[in-house]
Design brief:
The structure holds two protein chains of two kinds. Chain A is mostly beta strands. Helix content of chain A is about 0%, strand content about 55%. Chain A has no helices and eleven strands. Chain A has strands at about 5, 10-15, 20-25, 30-40, 45-50, 55-60, 60-65, 70-75, 85-95, 100-105, 105-110. In chain A, the strands form two sheets. In chain A, strands 2, 4, 5, 9, 10 and 11 form a six-stranded mixed sheet that branches. In chain A, strands 1-3-8-7-6 form a five-stranded antiparallel sheet, with no helix packed on it. Chain A is globular. Chain B is an all-beta fold. Chain B is about 0% helix and about 50% strand. Chain B has no helices and eleven strands. Chain B has strands at about 5, 10-15, 20-25, 30-35, 45-50, 55, 65-70, 75-80, 90-95, 105, 110-114. The chains are: A mainly beta, B mainly beta. Chains A and B meet through β4, β5, β9 and β10 of A and β4, β5, β9 and β10 of B.
């Protein structure tokens, strides 16, 4: 069936370092991918998205990379800050058939001061 | 506050009782989504509306669950005869056209069934 998973459940980084959060997806029909950030007690917050016709997309301090060959998605956060501490989810969508998002189980990012 | 709001934020109920949650989307958003999230897991899709039409329902949405969006604005999610397995965070999101990822989430309603 459809699934979106993450390689590492917890990632600890030093403030100022770059962070890389990885995600594997299994549905080759997925053509739209999103990263969300969720802080404790809050709903997920949209970070960045990418369509399957792209390999890379950059935002403010964040970059998403998509490797369709191995069905892998990553989120890179530059100069990680304490405010980046949260759980990060990747999600996928098959845009031709539905607007529902299929989320993975999340990676917790801890930023050490 | 112009974001998605949900009410109540917390609900404790006894098994077998009915509960109803409300979601108010961002005012101009035509799509509204319900997800359920258990501890340590990502949100799971339940259902979504475009205006007042319910266009998709997950098989997770058993007969005890019903959602409405009568005037295409706010939505309610009702759970009848609650079970302990219904304990979770219920998240609402809304979007305006565009792609499916541009979903803005509310803070959620945490349900505890005792």
């Amino acid at each position: 069936g459809e699934s979106v998973g993450l390689h590492l459940p917890t990632l600890s980084v030093q403030e100022g370092d770059n962070s890389i959060i990885n995600c594997a997806y299994s549905n080759s029909a997925s053509d739209y991918f999103i990263w969300y950030k969720q802080e404790s007690g809050k709903g997920p917050q949209f970070i960045i998205d990418i369509r399957s016709n792209m390999d890379k997309r950059q935002g403010q301090r964040v970059t998403v990379l998509l490797n369709k060959t191995v069905k892998h998605l990553s989120l890179q956060i530059a100069a990680t800050q304490p405010g980046d501490s949260a759980v990060y989810f990747c999600a996928e969508n098959i845009s031709d058939s539905s607007y529902k998002l299929i989320f993975g189980s999340g990676t917790r990012l801890l930023v050490r001061p | 506050d112009t974001g998605v709001s949900q009410d109540p934020r917390h609900k404790i109920t006894k098994r077998g009782q009915n509960v109803t949650f409300r979601c108010d989307p961002i005012s101009e958003h035509n799509r509204l989504y319900w997800y359920r999230q258990t501890l340590g897991q990502g949100p799971e899709f339940l259902t979504y509306f475009q205006n007042e039409a319910q266009l998709e329902k997950s098989r997770l949405l058993s007969d005890r669950f019903s959602a409405e969006r009568p005037k295409g604005s706010f939505s309610t999610l009702e759970i009848q005869r609650t079970e302990q397995g219904d304990s979770a965070m219920y998240l609402c999101a809304s979007s305006l056209g565009g792609g499916p990822g541009e979903q803005y989430f509310g803070p959620g309603t945490r349900l505890t069934v005792t």
